[in-house]
Design brief:
alpha/beta; Rossmann fold; 2 domains; six-stranded parallel sheet; six-stranded mixed sheet; disordered N terminus
C-alpha cells in the first residue's frame, strides 16, 4: 500500500488537471504524485498568455488599452498583428476579439498541427525545434507583409519562444540547409537559450529586429511570454525588438562550445561581415509587455501548495544545468529533507518555473528523450527507495526535447518498478534514452501543445519526517 503524504495533510482536490493526470495516478506513489501534479497544473494555468492579456488589456469604443497605455485606433491607418511562437496563438486570439473589425490583418506562425482559425488573421504552420522549408516560407511571408505596411500603421507583435525555428530566413550568402545545420548544432551543444539566440540573431534575415526594420511603421507594441531568465526583450521577441548583442558575442558562443570549426563555412564568413550587425531601429517606438514569465507560475504554485497544507519551497526561475545533474541533486536534497528536516521543513513542495535544463549530446550515445524526461529519470535513479517522494518535470510548451511528450514523473517506487521490467536506469541515462524507460513505466507526461512557453517547470512533493 502506498504511504499517505502526511498524517497532518489532506489529499489534494484537483481543479485544473493536466490532460493525462489520471493515467499517472494508477501506479507508483499515487498520493504524492497527486500533490506534485496538482501544484504543477496550477503553475501551468497561470502561464496562459491569453488569460494574462485579458488582465491588462481592454477596449472602450475607439480606445484600445494595453497596460497603462491607451491607443486611439482612429489615429492609425490600420492595425496589423504579426507573430510566431509556441505561445503566440492565444495572444492572437484575444487580440482578434478585442480589435474586431479594426484588425487590418496579420500573420501568426505556429507549430505543425497547432493551428486553429482566428478571425482576421492568417495562421501558418511550420517546424520546431529544427526549421523546415515551411519555416522559411513563413518568414518570407512576414517580411513581405511588414514591407507592405505604412508609416501610420500600428503593429502589434506576438513573438514568443520557438519563433527562431518557426520563422527562419537565412541572410544573403547562406543557404537554408546551412542555417538548419546551425540550428541542429546549437541545440545539441548544451548551450543555454540565451547563448543560442545570441548566435541565431546574427545569422538571419528576420531576427535581431530585422523584421521590424522591414516596415515603415513607427509604433510597435510587443506582447510576449518569457522563456529566458531576466525577461530581456530581444531574447524573447527579437524579430521586433532592438538587439542588445553583436556578432562578436555570437562568435564567442561558437568558440565557447567548440562549434566554430564545425558550423558551415558560410556562417563563419557571414559573422565577420557588416551584414551580421543588427539594425539600430532608432526611428521606432517599441513598447514590450511580458505577459507571462516563470515568476508568475511560481507564485501560483506557491499558493496552490499552501492551499493543500504543504510548505512551499520556491527555487525561482534561474535553475539551469545538465538535466541529469539537476534531477539527481533534487533527489539528494529530497532524501535529506525527509530524513532530517533540512534544508527544507517538511511536508514541503519544492518547485521551479522558467529555468532551463540542457542535455549535451554525444552523437555516439543518442537515444530518444528530452531534458525534463532525463531529469525525471535521474531523480528516480538517485532517490533512495525508502524515501517517499514524487517529482514531475515538464517543458511548459508540451514538447520536451522535440518529442511528443511534455516530460515525465518519478517517485520512490520508480527504480524498483524499472528493475522488475528489466530496465537499467543508469545505462538509459548515459545513453540519453529517457523516453523509452518512462514509456515502459507509464510515466511520460503527455499534454500536447499547451499554448504557453516559460521553459521548464518542475515540482517535488516531500512528505513529513516519519511518513
Amino acid at each position: 500500500m502506498n504511504p499517505s503524504p502526511s498524517a497532518s495533510v489532506g489529499s489534494p482536490t484537483p481543479t485544473e488537471r493536466l490532460p493525462d493526470f489520471d493515467s499517472l495516478l494508477g501506479h507508483g506513489n499515487e498520493a504524492l504524485r497527486a500533490v506534485a501534479l496538482d501544484v504543477l497544473a496550477a503553475g501551468l494555468s497561470a502561464a496562459d498568455p491569453g488569460r494574462a492579456l485579458r488582465e491588462i488589456a481592454g477596449r472602450d469604443g475607439d480606445v484600445l488599452r494595453i497596460g497603462s497605455t491607451s491607443y486611439h485606433l482612429s489615429d492609425y491607418d490600420q492595425v496589423i498583428v504579426v507573430g510566431a511562437g509556441k505561445a503566440s496563438l492565444p495572444i492572437a486570439e484575444v487580440l482578434s476579439e478585442l480589435l474586431g473589425n479594426e484588425l487590418g490583418g496579420g500573420i501568426v506562425v505556429v507549430r505543425h498541427g497547432a493551428a486553429r482559425p482566428v478571425a482576421g488573421l492568417t495562421i501558418v504552420e511550420a517546424s520546431h525545434p529544427v526549421p523546415d522549408e515551411a519555416s522559411e516560407h513563413a518568414g518570407r511571408l512576414l517580411l513581405e507583409l511588414m514591407a507592405s505596411t505604412g508609416a501610420n500603421d500600428l503593429i502589434i507583435g506576438c513573438f514568443t519562444g520557438g519563433s527562431s525555428a518557426l520563422v527562419s530566413v537565412p541572410p544573403n550568402g547562406i543557404s537554408f540547409s546551412d542555417k538548419r545545420q546551425l540550428h541542429r548544432l546549437l541545440l545539441a551543444s548544451g548551450a543555454t537559450i540565451n547563448d543560442i539566440n545570441a548566435v541565431r540573431k546574427h545569422v538571419s534575415a528576420i531576427k535581431g529586429g530585422r523584421l521590424l526594420a522591414a516596415s515603415p511603421a513607427t509604433t510597435i507594441v510587443n506582447l510576449t511570454v518569457s522563456d529566458v531568465v531576466g525577461n530581456q526583450a530581444d531574447l524573447i521577441t527579437d524579430p521586433t525588438a532592438v538587439d542588445s548583442t553583436d556578432p562578436d558575442a555570437a562568435i564567442k558562443v561558437l568558440h565557447d562550445f567548440d562549434l566554430w570549426d564545425t558550423v558551415p563555412a558560410p556562417v563563419r564568413e557571414h559573422l565577420t561581415q557588416a551584414a551580421a550587425h543588427s539594425p539600430k531601429l532608432l526611428d521606432k517606438n517599441v513598447t514590450t509587455h511580458v505577459l507571462v514569465d516563470g515568476a508568475r507560475s511560481c507564485d501560483a504554485m506557491s499558493q496552490k501548495a499552501q492551499s493543500l497544507g504543504w510548505n512551499p519551497v520556491n527555487f525561482g526561475v534561474r535553475v539551469e544545468g545538465e538535466a541529469s545533474t539537476v534531477g539527481g541533486l533534487l533527489a539528494t536534497l529530497t532524501a535529506e529533507a525527509h530524513a532530517s528536516g533540512n534544508p527544507f521543513q517538511t511536508p514541503c513542495v519544492i518547485f521551479s518555473a522558467g529555468g532551463e535544463m540542457t542535455v549535451t549530446l554525444d552523437q555516439a550515445l543518442l537515444g530518444a528523450g528530452g531534458p525534463n524526461q532525463e531529469a525525471a529519470l535521474a531523480f528516480a535513479h538517485r532517490l533512495p527507495e525508502a524515501t517517499p517522494a514524487a517529482a514531475v518535470f515538464m517543458d511548459s510548451d508540451g514538447s520536451d526535447g522535440g518529442t511528443n511528450h511534455a516530460g515525465g514523473i518519478a517517485d520512490n517506487f520508480s527504480a524498483g518498478r524499472a528493475r522488475q521490467l528489466g530496465l537499467n536506469l543508469k545505462t538509459s541515462l548515459l545513453g540519453h534514452a529517457s523516453t523509452n524507460v518512462l514509456t515502459e513505466l507509464g510515466d511520460t507526461l503527455t499534454t500536447g501543445p499547451t499554448g504557453t512557453n516559460i521553459s521548464d517547470m518542475w515540482v517535488v512533493a516531500v512528505p513529513g519526517m516519519g511518513s
